[in-house]
């Protein structure tokens, strides 16, 4: 089974600062609000935003035990794809 989520991040490629939503519309609205907040605080800020569709696999027992044991990476264990 797979679950599709949408996420946005302030700095493309930095997986530490990602915010997830259920729908693309919610994600776009949150990303726009983040952009507006950043620009209002610093008009010269270059606040590039990235929006992704993320497909996650529901983990099986091997993944549930392999990730904490570091036998399987978190990303490869549950992420099917990111667009």
Any key phrases for this structure?
83 residues; alpha+beta; 3 helices; 35% helix
Summarize the structure in short.
This protein is α+β, with helices and mostly antiparallel strands and 83 residues long.
Class based on secondary structure composition and strand pairing: alpha+beta
- Separation of the first and last Cα atoms: 18 Å
Q: Rg to the nearest angstrom? A: 15 Å
Strand order of the largest sheet: 2-1-3-4
Summed up, the helix count is: 3
Helix content: 25-40%
Q: Kindly state the number of beta strands.
A: 4
Mean pLDDT: 80
Q: Largest beta sheet, briefly?
A: 4 strands, antiparallel
Which ranges are low-confidence, i.e. pLDDT below 50, for 5 or more consecutive residues? none
- Strand and helix order: EEHEHHE
Which descriptor suits the 3D outline?
Answer: elongated
* Number of self-contained structural domains: 1
Strand content: 25-35%
Account of the protein in words:
With 83 residues, this protein is an alpha+beta fold. The chain has one domain (2-82). It is 35% helix and 29% strand. It is built from three helices and four strands, in the order ββαβααβ. It has helices at residues 24-41, 61-66, 74-78, and strands at 2-9, 18-21, 50-57, 79-82. Strands 2-1-3-4 form a four-stranded antiparallel beta sheet. The radius of gyration is 15 Å and the shape is elongated. 5% of the residues are buried. The model has no long low-confidence stretch (mean pLDDT 80).
